[in-house]
Prior knowledge:
Elements: E1 16-20, E2 24-31, E3 35-40, E4 49-56, E5 59-77, E6 83-95, H1 98-123, H2 126-129
Antiparallel strand pairs: 1-2, 1-4, 2-3, 3-6, 4-5, 5-6
Amino acid sequence: MNDRRATARKAPPRPLPAKLKSSLPARVLDISAGGIQVEVGTSLRPMADCELRVQLEDGEVAVRAQVRRCRAWGFGLDESDRRVLLYRAGLQFTDLPAEVLARLRRYVDVEEARAEAGRAAAAERPEADAPVTEGALVTEPEAPLPPAPRRSGPVKIRINSE
């Protein structure tokens, strides 16, 4: 399937913490020159204007945007470790200075380079390829976590009509 986007998206190696409408916790999933995709714990009304504050290592960046779409995505945990329905929203920038976009992109590129360097260093470690000698401590690989218990019954969805 062809990608119809006018500009390419860049995803940070790990989601960036953010605040939407000054108090709603969000996570930035990807960034482009035209907009940003976030994950939030509540539904956002399409065409609503909002302010997004993204927390970077060197400070906070504030951008004005308009909600273009918002869809239920799946279940996750909130700050209190409660299971909640998560939404993914696409926000289109309405007022974005070029230096703010450059700062966001620079941060994503730096984090991506750090992650790549970490993967390369892990692949080059000699102890991973060294033969095991007699008397050496051998550890078992960590066992995968068991799957989460499945819940049956109705799903409750709260809709805010503001």
